[in-house]
Amino acid sequence: MTQLLTPGDRSRRPAAAAEAAGPLVQTLPPGEVFAALDTSPRGLAATDAVARRDRCGPNELPRARRRRVWRQLAAQFRDLFAIVLLVASAITFLIYALQQPRDVGTFRLAVAILGVVVLNASIGFAQEYSAERTAQSLQAMVPHTCRVLRDGERQEMPARELVPGDVVVLEAGDAVSADCRLVEAHEASVNNAALTGESDAVGRSGDPVAAGPLLEARNCVFMGTDVIAGSAKAVVFATGAATEFGRIFRLAAAAPRQKTPLQLQVASMARRVAGAALAIGAVLFAVRVPAGQPFVATFVFALGVMVALVPEGLPATLSVSLAIGVRRMARRHALVKKLLAVEALGSTTVVCTDKTGTLTQAEMTVTRVWAGGESHAVSGVGYAPVGEVSDRLSVRELLRVAGLCGNARLLPPPSDAGRYPHSGRGGWRVLGDTTEGALLVAAAKAGLDLAAEEAAAPRVGEHPFDSVRKLMSTVHGAPDGDTYCAYVKGAPQELLARCTGIDWKGERRPLTEELRAEVVATNDELASRGLRVLAAARRPVTGPGCTQDEAESGLTLLGLIGMLDPPRPEVSDAVDACRNAGIRIVMVTGDHPLTAEAVARRVGIVRQTAPTVVTGTRLDALDDNALDGVLAEPTELLLCRVSPEHKMRVVTAFQRRGEVVAVTGDGANDAPALKHADIGVAMGASGTDVAREAAVMVLLDDSFASIAAAVRLGRSVYQNIRKFLIYLFSHNIAELVPILAATFAGFPLVPITAVQILAIDLGSDVLPALALGAEPPEPDVMDRPPRSRRERLFSATVLGRTLFLGGIQALGVCVVFFWHIHASGIPYSHFTEDNAVYREAITMVQAGIVVSQFFNALAVRTDRQSVFRIGLLSNPWLLAAGCFGIGLMAAISYLPVLQTVFHTAPLAAADWAVLTAFGVLLLAAEETRKWWLRRHRPVRPVGRKGGER
Ligand code: ATP
Q1: Cα–Cα dist 525/213, whole Å
Q2: Cα angle 428-434-437, degrees, rounded to a multiple of 5
Q3: What is the DSSP letter of 28?
């Protein structure tokens, strides 16, 4: 192995030493690169690769150092609420220290406030810690593979296995996994934004360049960048931390976590409520002191009430519920990369979906071949090359050319076939494009040995496929080495426009209008059966370096190939669910309109007799106003023969109309549409790295059904957040109203003490709220229209429900309190803190709130449905949390040590029975309200007729 240098080495060594050590990788001609890196055009031998892997380590960057645990914990105390509470606790401690005589109640309050701060910090810490772990494990689920030549065989393997000397094959959409020197490039260009910040595409070639900065060498590609067009072959010269990316970003910090609009909304609401709590505390103080209450005691009490009303646990509960949503979506194969997607999913109104792979299985099988005016059937299903072509001879040239003009490989069933979830029937797999894979299978069924054909006509050039021109061409030499031929395949319309002749049973005929019409009619006939149709053609060219224009004009058409791609069985139900949920589904495909319509009918996207079909050409002719008009029409919509640029335009147009758009994409040039959409959805199994980077959600199984599942979960996350908001705020009303009532009724003491309120917060707030955040989706969650993006979280409905439930609770506790006081016959002015009746009454108030919160938690579980329909016991966490709260209350009521702390008294069985009756009453009232709602305000059936919501 020649001593080879990269400028990275050079910068670390004295210049003279560098010169003496050997040439720079970018200055060598392609043929010498292999020798210099001690490898060959066949790639490394497997044993050599293992040895190099042991020597160089895995191709990974060192992980960014995680924040120390104590720092993470300390950060929790820097939160606004924590600071407010800490200050309140400090003031209370101070008052206790200065009091003469000291009141142990003040001390308890200070400790209780501190307890609330610690509990919240612990929850916040646990949530952040687990969110980080979840993010890491989710990240590991996104496949990061690369194509490598080892022992002359092309294979796909995890990018971390790459070693210097590996020969990699790069295609548009691939992320570059190591620093590589190109030895072959076909119209390749890369985006170096991650390294240079420059996001324009820069062309690459395999030719040697003069010595200079490595990053400027046009024959090198670097880890962390993306191939955005063309294809290339390259030799790895640096991996892991030794790459340019590794040098620059060695200790790359984790991306800052952004707050979603929902989190911001909740945070601002929590701040406002905290402001209101402070105001209420101040008012209580201002009213009670002139009424003759002791100054210090009233101040301490008002402080306690303020603290109790501050919704300090709210942001943490929100984050937990979003995190639960993300985990649930991952279980349904939808990997959310940004929390933003969780809430946007709930208000999605339009899904623009690809066809191949998302609605269909992407398991292409050629079923018909047309050549020389005759149509032939091909038998067999899937990628196993087992089947027959009805007339092998007449389709031989068509399948030979189509088979050689491609980069896919057919892999026989591996011995451990179970490891490959995307393998086709019989375990045969396609490495690369599935359309091209189907052509290889068809060629094999026609008895062609493509390896021998390739040897006889070796490929010397390539113009890669792109979805704008919808064509691909390769240039092949003949055995004599003097003549060259271009083989072209692609969408029939595009190819036909570039053909001047047609192969008619071995002889070239001019492509007359009649023959052209016959080809078009055959194409339409195949497409209307739902087949993807490809045409193939060829022509002699001047040499290996012929231009794309030369290779793809003046062609002789060889025939048409129709391939079947069966719909995914789970998609029809998912399409129905989306229709019910008022979500419009628009198919966006590069395929022929008739193919698109046939598939759309099969999966239920099209049911009308005449859907609106807009082709790429028509889209080009429409200005923005006209396009808006088309999208506004209440019909089923198919966008066919479109390019990624069209997709982007349609997404923007939908957004202009106020729609919330989810769009799927797999190719490198889908990235702008994926970024621009409200929810960019990339394919995990078949998509490109570039698309996955641009998207906010990745479908691990590529299926449309997973989008529908994610929408359902996204909606339920939002609903759950509302549930615990109602739950939390309604009990605040139940705490506050008796205090105000007692104040205004002239009762000298408080009906519930600040320490009691804090105990309720600790025992009955946080855990049930967390359990509500984990509620499974309600059965009718997909029967409602999408939530408007403008809708506020704390809407009039939520406020109304909070007042309704909180009002009933407040009424209940006021009744039990004053009933106790009045039944004793003791005048107000004779009550002291140690009075047994008073202690019983305040115990009743505290227990009343705790018990009614148990029933309240059950009541808020559904919006409209009866809670009995989803099953009273179906959220065991909620029941456990409720029982914990009641258990704690019982301990406060019966344990002498806690009785002293809380000034409580033991309640009789009859007292609990009364409180339970109030709880049942609350549930009954809420059930009646829901029944009334179902009866008088039925949900408008939202299933869009056609395209309409
Ligand atoms: P879909 O919605 O089915 O996923 P798409 O939008 O991804 O379609 P493209 O892959 O861009 O469509 O293909 C557009 C057209 O180009 C196809 O209908 C087909 O005729 C042709 N085509 C697809 N793949 C190739 C290929 N590898 N080589 C040549 N032509 C191809």
Answers
A1: 57
A2: 60
A3: S
- What pLDDT, on a 0 to 100 scale, did the predictor assign at position 527? 93
Domain range for 112: 70-133+259-328+710-936
**pLDDT averaged over the chain?**
85
Nearest Cα residue to atom 18 of ligand 1: 591
- Whole-angstrom distance, CA of residue 257 vs CA of residue 249: 18
The whole-number pLDDT of residue 221 equals: 92
Which is more confident, 912 or 299?
912
Q: Which residues line ligand 1 (CB under 6 A)?
A: 354-356, 433, 435-436, 465, 467, 470-472, 489-491, 532, 534, 589-591
Is pLDDT larger for residue 22 or for residue 556? 556
User: Which pLDDT score is estimated for 412?
Assistant: 83
Give per-residue pLDDT as tens, 752-786.
Answer: 988 888 888 878 888 898 899 888 888 888 988 88
> Quick one: angle between helices 909-936 and 836-859, nearest 10?
30
Both 916 and 894 in one domain: the answer is yes
Where helices occur in 7-79 by DSSP H, the ranges are 7-12, 15-21, 30-36, 46-56, 69-76
Structure tokens at 414: 């591996």
Residue 844: φ, ψ to 5°: -60, -40
The model's pLDDT over 312-344, given as tens digits with 9 standing for 90+, comes to: 667 778 878 888 888 888 888 888 887 778 878
Supply the CATH number for residue 369's domain: 3.40.1110.10
Beta strands in 414-479 (DSSP E): 429-431, 459-466, 471-477
Whether the CB-CB separation of 128 and 20 falls below 8 Å is answered with no
Over residues 478-487, mean pLDDT: 85
Pairing of strands 679-683, 661-665: parallel
Which residue carries 């295609």 as its tokens?
171
Interatomic CA distance for residues 536 and 442, integer angstroms: 14
Q: Could you tell me if 541 and 383 are in contact, meaning their C-beta atoms sit under 8 angstroms apart?
A: no
- Which of 347-351, 722-726, 761-765, 920-924 comes out lowest in average pLDDT? 761-765
714 and 583 together in one domain: no
Question: What are all long-range contacts of 797-803, with beta carbons under 8 Å and residues at least 24 apart?
Answer: 798/722, 798/725, 798/726, 801/726, 801/730, 801/860, 802/725, 802/726, 802/729, 802/730, 802/733, 803/730, 803/733
Residue 746 lies in a domain: yes
The backbone torsions φ and ψ at residue 847, rounded to the nearest 5 degrees and listed phi first, read -65, -35
CA 140 / ligand 1 centre spacing (Å): 30
Q: How far is the CA of 497 from the centre of ligand 1 (A)?
A: 17
- φ and ψ of 862, to 5 deg: -125, 150
Structural domains in the chain (count): 4
Q: Is residue 154 part of a domain?
A: no
- Residue 439 and residue 371 share a domain: yes
Answer yes or no: are the C-beta atoms of 771 and 322 closer than 8 Å. no
Which ligand 1 atom sits nearest the alpha carbon of residue 436? Answer: 27
Q: Give residue 730's identity as a one-letter amino acid code.
A: S
Whether 466 is a known active-site residue: answer: no
